[in-house]
Specification:
Blueprint (H helix, E strand, L loop, with lengths): L3 E5 L3 H12 L3 E5 L3 H10 L16 E3 L2 H5 L5
């Protein structure tokens, strides 16, 4: 069963959880409160300062809009 999951917080733990859920085949959104950081994460697909060498799964939606992040999710 595929779930729609939103992870609130794009720090090291949030990125790790989002990647894990995406690897399991779930639809994942990742919320970052800072719009500039969210844009950078979406473009670069990594956060080197927190998780060196770890890429953010290509299918994860990244947003700084909280309402968008939680709309229609299962978890």
């Amino acid at each position: 069963m595929t779930l729609r999951i939103s992870i609130l917080g794009a720090g090291s733990w949030g990125i790790a959880l989002a990647n894990y859920a995406a690897d399991l085949g779930h639809q994942v959104g990742l919320w970052e409160f800072d719009p500039a950081v969210a844009t950078t994460l979406d473009r670069e697909r990594r956060r080197e300062a927190m998780l060196p060498g770890v890429l953010i799964h290509r299918d994860i939606r990244i947003t700084s809009e909280l309402a968008e992040a939680v709309q229609g999710v299962d978890l």
